[in-house]
Amino acid sequence: MSVIEVKAYAKLNLSLDVLGKRPDGYHDMRMVMQTVGLTDQLRLETGTDKPLRMETNLGFLPADEHNLAAAAALRMCAAPGVEHGGLSIRLLKTIPVCPGLAGGGADAAAVLRGLNQLLGLGLSGQRLAEIGAQVGSDVPYCVMGGTALAEGRGEVLTPLPPLPPCHVVLCKPAFSVSTPELFKALDGCRICRRPDTAGLLAALEGGDLPEVARRMYNVFEDVLPSRRAQEIDAIKNVLIQHGALGASMSGTGPTVFGLFARREEAEGAWKALRELYRETFLAEAVGNLLEQV
Ligand code: C5P
Predict the structure, then answer these.
(1) Is the CB of 29 under 6 A from ligand 1?
(2) Whose CA is nearest to atom 15 of ligand 1?
(3) Is 190 in a helix, a strand, or coil?
(4) Does 291 score more than 80 pLDDT?
(5) Whole-structure pTM over 0.85, yes or no?
(6) What is the mean pLDDT of residues 215-232?
(7) Mean pLDDT on 268-283
(8) How many Å apart are CA 255 and CA 140, to the nearest integer?
Protein backbone atom coordinates (compact mmCIF):
# COMPACT_ATOMS: atom_id res chain seq x y z
CA MET A 1 0.00 0.00 0.00
CA SER A 2 1.18 3.53 -0.76
CA VAL A 3 -0.23 6.71 0.70
CA ILE A 4 0.07 10.40 -0.13
CA GLU A 5 -1.46 13.48 1.51
CA VAL A 6 -2.25 16.37 -0.83
CA LYS A 7 -3.70 19.84 -0.42
CA ALA A 8 -6.38 21.30 -2.67
CA TYR A 9 -6.16 25.09 -2.96
CA ALA A 10 -9.11 27.43 -3.48
CA LYS A 11 -8.98 29.89 -6.38
CA LEU A 12 -10.18 33.46 -6.73
CA ASN A 13 -11.09 35.46 -9.79
CA LEU A 14 -9.23 38.76 -9.63
CA SER A 15 -11.32 39.54 -12.72
CA LEU A 16 -13.98 37.67 -14.63
CA ASP A 17 -15.32 38.55 -18.07
CA VAL A 18 -17.66 36.48 -20.24
CA LEU A 19 -17.04 37.17 -23.93
CA GLY A 20 -19.93 35.22 -25.46
CA LYS A 21 -21.74 31.91 -25.84
CA ARG A 22 -20.12 29.19 -27.94
CA PRO A 23 -21.74 26.65 -30.25
CA ASP A 24 -20.95 23.87 -27.71
CA GLY A 25 -23.13 25.63 -25.08
CA TYR A 26 -20.16 26.80 -22.97
CA HIS A 27 -19.02 30.42 -22.80
CA ASP A 28 -15.74 32.02 -23.81
CA MET A 29 -14.15 33.53 -20.73
CA ARG A 30 -11.35 35.96 -19.93
CA MET A 31 -10.40 35.68 -16.26
CA VAL A 32 -7.41 36.51 -14.09
CA MET A 33 -7.10 33.68 -11.58
CA GLN A 34 -5.30 33.51 -8.25
CA THR A 35 -4.64 30.60 -5.90
CA VAL A 36 -5.09 31.21 -2.17
CA GLY A 37 -3.99 29.23 0.87
CA LEU A 38 -7.47 28.07 1.87
CA THR A 39 -7.24 24.32 1.48
CA ASP A 40 -8.98 20.98 1.58
CA GLN A 41 -6.91 17.98 2.65
CA LEU A 42 -6.91 14.73 0.66
CA ARG A 43 -5.42 11.37 1.54
CA LEU A 44 -4.92 9.01 -1.39
CA GLU A 45 -4.12 5.36 -0.82
CA THR A 46 -3.41 2.74 -3.49
CA GLY A 47 -3.34 -1.05 -3.19
CA THR A 48 -6.66 -1.19 -1.31
CA ASP A 49 -9.28 -3.87 -1.90
CA LYS A 50 -11.90 -1.92 -3.92
CA PRO A 51 -11.45 -0.25 -7.34
CA LEU A 52 -12.48 3.14 -5.85
CA ARG A 53 -13.61 4.05 -2.37
CA MET A 54 -14.23 7.61 -1.23
CA GLU A 55 -15.21 9.21 2.05
CA THR A 56 -15.61 12.86 3.07
CA ASN A 57 -16.25 14.72 6.33
CA LEU A 58 -19.42 16.28 4.84
CA GLY A 59 -22.27 13.80 4.71
CA PHE A 60 -24.20 15.73 2.04
CA LEU A 61 -21.39 15.55 -0.52
CA PRO A 62 -21.47 12.73 -3.08
CA ALA A 63 -18.75 10.15 -2.55
CA ASP A 64 -18.94 8.61 -6.02
CA GLU A 65 -18.19 9.76 -9.57
CA HIS A 66 -20.48 12.77 -8.98
CA ASN A 67 -17.75 14.14 -6.73
CA LEU A 68 -15.12 15.82 -8.93
CA ALA A 69 -12.28 14.25 -6.89
CA ALA A 70 -13.54 10.74 -7.67
CA ALA A 71 -14.30 11.72 -11.28
CA ALA A 72 -10.70 12.89 -11.68
CA ALA A 73 -9.35 9.66 -10.19
CA LEU A 74 -11.49 7.58 -12.57
CA ARG A 75 -10.28 9.62 -15.58
CA MET A 76 -6.66 9.28 -14.50
CA CYS A 77 -6.94 5.54 -13.89
CA ALA A 78 -8.64 4.98 -17.27
CA ALA A 79 -5.44 6.14 -19.02
CA PRO A 80 -3.42 3.30 -20.57
CA GLY A 81 -0.76 1.78 -18.30
CA VAL A 82 -2.12 3.19 -15.02
CA GLU A 83 -2.25 0.45 -12.36
CA HIS A 84 -3.11 1.15 -8.72
CA GLY A 85 -4.57 -2.12 -7.37
CA GLY A 86 -7.49 -0.36 -5.66
CA LEU A 87 -7.77 3.31 -4.66
CA SER A 88 -9.16 5.03 -1.61
CA ILE A 89 -9.73 8.81 -1.34
CA ARG A 90 -10.35 10.57 1.98
CA LEU A 91 -11.42 14.20 1.62
CA LEU A 92 -11.47 16.67 4.49
CA LYS A 93 -13.31 19.80 3.28
CA THR A 94 -12.56 23.29 4.53
CA ILE A 95 -13.13 25.27 1.31
CA PRO A 96 -16.81 26.30 1.27
CA VAL A 97 -18.91 24.15 -1.03
CA CYS A 98 -19.75 26.79 -3.63
CA PRO A 99 -18.84 27.30 -7.27
CA GLY A 100 -17.06 30.63 -6.71
CA LEU A 101 -13.91 29.14 -5.19
CA ALA A 102 -13.65 26.04 -7.43
CA GLY A 103 -13.47 23.80 -4.35
CA GLY A 104 -14.58 20.72 -6.32
CA GLY A 105 -12.21 21.58 -9.16
CA ALA A 106 -9.39 22.11 -6.66
CA ASP A 107 -10.04 18.66 -5.14
CA ALA A 108 -10.00 17.10 -8.61
CA ALA A 109 -6.72 18.85 -9.45
CA ALA A 110 -5.16 17.71 -6.17
CA VAL A 111 -6.13 14.10 -6.98
CA LEU A 112 -4.46 14.42 -10.40
CA ARG A 113 -1.26 15.92 -8.95
CA GLY A 114 -1.24 13.43 -6.07
CA LEU A 115 -1.84 10.30 -8.17
CA ASN A 116 0.80 11.44 -10.66
CA GLN A 117 3.31 11.50 -7.82
CA LEU A 118 2.04 8.45 -5.90
CA LEU A 119 1.99 6.20 -8.97
CA GLY A 120 5.20 7.68 -10.40
CA LEU A 121 3.45 8.40 -13.70
CA GLY A 122 5.63 11.37 -14.62
CA LEU A 123 2.80 13.07 -16.54
CA SER A 124 3.46 16.71 -17.49
CA GLY A 125 1.38 19.56 -16.08
CA GLN A 126 -0.04 19.99 -19.58
CA ARG A 127 -1.23 16.34 -19.67
CA LEU A 128 -2.74 16.61 -16.17
CA ALA A 129 -4.58 19.75 -17.30
CA GLU A 130 -5.93 17.91 -20.37
CA ILE A 131 -7.30 15.12 -18.17
CA GLY A 132 -8.67 17.75 -15.78
CA ALA A 133 -10.51 19.57 -18.59
CA GLN A 134 -12.66 16.44 -19.05
CA VAL A 135 -13.75 16.74 -15.40
CA GLY A 136 -14.54 20.48 -15.19
CA SER A 137 -13.71 23.82 -16.82
CA ASP A 138 -11.72 25.13 -13.86
CA VAL A 139 -9.71 21.95 -13.18
CA PRO A 140 -6.85 22.76 -15.65
CA TYR A 141 -6.23 26.05 -13.84
CA CYS A 142 -6.45 24.32 -10.45
CA VAL A 143 -3.77 21.84 -11.60
CA MET A 144 -1.38 24.69 -12.36
CA GLY A 145 -2.37 27.34 -9.79
CA GLY A 146 -0.60 30.63 -9.13
CA THR A 147 -1.55 33.79 -11.01
CA ALA A 148 -2.79 33.09 -14.53
CA LEU A 149 -4.99 34.33 -17.34
CA ALA A 150 -7.67 31.75 -18.20
CA GLU A 151 -9.42 31.96 -21.56
CA GLY A 152 -11.56 29.72 -23.75
CA ARG A 153 -13.78 27.59 -21.51
CA GLY A 154 -11.26 28.37 -18.76
CA GLU A 155 -8.71 25.80 -19.91
CA VAL A 156 -6.48 28.03 -22.09
CA LEU A 157 -3.92 29.21 -19.55
CA THR A 158 -1.19 31.83 -19.61
CA PRO A 159 0.97 32.16 -16.49
CA LEU A 160 1.20 35.75 -15.22
CA PRO A 161 3.60 37.59 -12.90
CA PRO A 162 2.67 36.67 -9.31
CA LEU A 163 0.26 38.81 -7.33
CA PRO A 164 2.38 41.01 -5.01
CA PRO A 165 2.38 39.64 -1.43
CA CYS A 166 -0.92 40.43 0.27
CA HIS A 167 -3.54 39.13 2.66
CA VAL A 168 -6.92 37.92 1.49
CA VAL A 169 -10.18 37.83 3.45
CA LEU A 170 -12.85 35.56 1.98
CA CYS A 171 -16.46 35.59 3.10
CA LYS A 172 -19.24 33.29 1.91
CA PRO A 173 -22.79 34.46 2.55
CA ALA A 174 -25.32 31.78 3.36
CA PHE A 175 -27.18 31.72 0.03
CA SER A 176 -26.27 29.53 -2.91
CA VAL A 177 -26.14 30.30 -6.62
CA SER A 178 -26.60 28.16 -9.73
CA THR A 179 -23.72 28.48 -12.19
CA PRO A 180 -25.78 27.51 -15.30
CA GLU A 181 -28.54 29.95 -14.28
CA LEU A 182 -26.14 32.85 -13.88
CA PHE A 183 -24.65 32.11 -17.32
CA LYS A 184 -28.19 32.04 -18.72
CA ALA A 185 -28.96 35.40 -17.07
CA LEU A 186 -25.85 36.90 -18.71
CA ASP A 187 -26.95 35.54 -22.11
CA GLY A 188 -30.21 37.42 -21.73
CA CYS A 189 -28.70 40.86 -21.12
CA ARG A 190 -26.21 43.28 -22.61
CA ILE A 191 -23.12 43.45 -20.39
CA CYS A 192 -22.65 47.17 -19.65
CA ARG A 193 -19.63 47.04 -17.40
CA ARG A 194 -16.58 44.83 -17.98
CA PRO A 195 -13.30 44.44 -16.11
CA ASP A 196 -10.27 46.31 -17.46
CA THR A 197 -8.33 43.06 -17.99
CA ALA A 198 -5.51 44.76 -19.93
CA GLY A 199 -5.07 47.27 -17.10
CA LEU A 200 -5.08 44.46 -14.55
CA LEU A 201 -2.40 42.58 -16.50
CA ALA A 202 -0.28 45.77 -16.68
CA ALA A 203 -0.70 46.26 -12.90
CA LEU A 204 0.48 42.67 -12.29
CA GLU A 205 3.42 43.26 -14.65
CA GLY A 206 4.32 46.36 -12.62
CA GLY A 207 3.89 44.54 -9.27
CA ASP A 208 1.41 47.26 -8.22
CA LEU A 209 -0.99 45.75 -5.64
CA PRO A 210 -3.27 48.83 -5.22
CA GLU A 211 -3.74 49.05 -9.01
CA VAL A 212 -4.49 45.31 -9.23
CA ALA A 213 -7.06 45.62 -6.43
CA ARG A 214 -8.62 48.74 -7.95
CA ARG A 215 -9.23 46.94 -11.26
CA MET A 216 -10.86 43.78 -9.91
CA TYR A 217 -14.33 43.21 -11.35
CA ASN A 218 -16.65 40.30 -12.06
CA VAL A 219 -19.47 40.56 -14.67
CA PHE A 220 -21.63 38.05 -12.76
CA GLU A 221 -22.19 40.64 -10.03
CA ASP A 222 -24.51 42.52 -12.40
CA VAL A 223 -26.92 39.60 -12.93
CA LEU A 224 -27.42 38.59 -9.30
CA PRO A 225 -30.96 39.00 -7.99
CA SER A 226 -31.06 42.46 -6.34
CA ARG A 227 -31.41 41.17 -2.76
CA ARG A 228 -28.31 38.98 -3.28
CA ALA A 229 -26.41 41.84 -4.93
CA GLN A 230 -27.15 44.02 -1.88
CA GLU A 231 -25.71 41.40 0.45
CA ILE A 232 -22.57 41.10 -1.70
CA ASP A 233 -22.19 44.90 -1.64
CA ALA A 234 -22.64 44.99 2.13
CA ILE A 235 -19.79 42.47 2.58
CA LYS A 236 -17.61 44.46 0.18
CA ASN A 237 -18.30 47.60 2.21
CA VAL A 238 -17.13 45.92 5.42
CA LEU A 239 -13.93 44.80 3.65
CA ILE A 240 -13.27 48.30 2.26
CA GLN A 241 -14.06 50.00 5.59
CA HIS A 242 -11.41 47.80 7.21
CA GLY A 243 -8.77 48.81 4.69
CA ALA A 244 -9.17 46.44 1.72
CA LEU A 245 -7.52 47.87 -1.40
CA GLY A 246 -10.32 46.32 -3.46
CA ALA A 247 -13.07 43.71 -3.15
CA SER A 248 -14.92 41.53 -5.63
CA MET A 249 -17.07 38.41 -5.94
CA SER A 250 -15.26 35.25 -7.04
CA GLY A 251 -16.56 33.15 -9.95
CA THR A 252 -20.33 32.77 -9.91
CA GLY A 253 -20.21 33.51 -6.19
CA PRO A 254 -21.43 33.96 -3.68
CA THR A 255 -18.01 34.24 -1.98
CA VAL A 256 -16.66 37.79 -1.77
CA PHE A 257 -13.00 38.58 -1.11
CA GLY A 258 -10.85 41.60 -0.35
CA LEU A 259 -7.12 42.17 -0.82
CA PHE A 260 -5.15 43.84 1.98
CA ALA A 261 -1.59 45.12 2.12
CA ARG A 262 -1.54 45.05 5.94
CA ARG A 263 -2.11 41.96 8.06
CA GLU A 264 -3.73 43.91 10.97
CA GLU A 265 -6.34 45.36 8.65
CA ALA A 266 -7.11 41.95 7.14
CA GLU A 267 -7.49 40.52 10.65
CA GLY A 268 -9.87 43.36 11.55
CA ALA A 269 -12.06 42.62 8.52
CA TRP A 270 -11.94 38.89 9.20
CA LYS A 271 -13.06 39.39 12.81
CA ALA A 272 -15.89 41.76 11.81
CA LEU A 273 -17.24 39.47 9.08
CA ARG A 274 -16.84 36.31 11.13
CA GLU A 275 -19.40 37.75 13.56
CA LEU A 276 -21.90 37.74 10.70
CA TYR A 277 -20.81 34.85 8.48
CA ARG A 278 -19.54 31.48 9.71
CA GLU A 279 -17.58 30.82 6.52
CA THR A 280 -15.09 33.70 6.73
CA PHE A 281 -11.40 33.02 6.16
CA LEU A 282 -8.06 34.78 6.21
CA ALA A 283 -5.50 33.50 3.69
CA GLU A 284 -2.42 34.41 1.64
CA ALA A 285 -1.88 34.34 -2.10
CA VAL A 286 -0.13 31.14 -3.27
CA GLY A 287 2.12 30.62 -6.31
CA ASN A 288 2.35 27.85 -8.93
CA LEU A 289 1.26 24.46 -7.58
CA LEU A 290 3.10 22.13 -9.93
CA GLU A 291 6.26 22.54 -7.87
CA GLN A 292 4.46 21.45 -4.71
CA VAL A 293 1.94 18.74 -3.89
O1 C5P B 1 -17.29 22.64 -16.96
P2 C5P B 1 -18.12 22.72 -15.71
O3 C5P B 1 -18.83 21.44 -15.42
O4 C5P B 1 -17.35 23.23 -14.55
O5 C5P B 1 -19.25 23.82 -15.99
C6 C5P B 1 -20.43 23.91 -15.23
C7 C5P B 1 -21.47 24.69 -16.01
O8 C5P B 1 -21.08 26.05 -16.13
C9 C5P B 1 -21.66 24.23 -17.45
O10 C5P B 1 -22.61 23.23 -17.54
C11 C5P B 1 -22.11 25.49 -18.15
O12 C5P B 1 -23.50 25.72 -17.90
C13 C5P B 1 -21.39 26.58 -17.40
N14 C5P B 1 -20.13 27.02 -18.06
C15 C5P B 1 -20.20 27.78 -19.23
N16 C5P B 1 -19.03 28.23 -19.80
C17 C5P B 1 -17.84 27.97 -19.23
C18 C5P B 1 -17.75 27.21 -18.04
C19 C5P B 1 -18.93 26.77 -17.47
O20 C5P B 1 -21.28 28.03 -19.75
N21 C5P B 1 -16.74 28.44 -19.80
Answers:
(1) yes
(2) 26
(3) coil
(4) no
(5) yes
(6) 95
(7) 98
(8) 21
Indicate the residue type of 15. S
d(CA 139, CA 66): 15
**Which one is catalytic: 17, 40, 107, 138?**
138
Output Rg (C-alpha) for the chain, integer angstroms.
19
pLDDT tens per residue, range 105-139: 999 999 999 999 999 999 999 999 999 999 999 99
Peptide bond into 254 cis (omega under 30): yes
Measure 210 CA to ligand 1 centroid, in angstroms.
31
Residue with the nearest Cα to atom 12 of ligand 1?
180
pLDDT digits (tens, 9 = 90+) for 172-215: 999 998 999 999 999 988 898 999 999 999 999 999 999 999 99
Res 163 pLDDT > 80: yes
To the query of whether residue 21 is one of the catalytic residues in this protein, the response is no
User: Annotated catalytic, 93?
Assistant: no
Q: Which atom of ligand 1 is nearest to the CA of 25?
A: 20
**Is any ligand 1 atom within 6 A of the Cβ of residue 68?**
no
φ/ψ of residue 179, rounded to 5: -60, -50
Choose the catalytic residue: 11, 93, 172, 236.
11
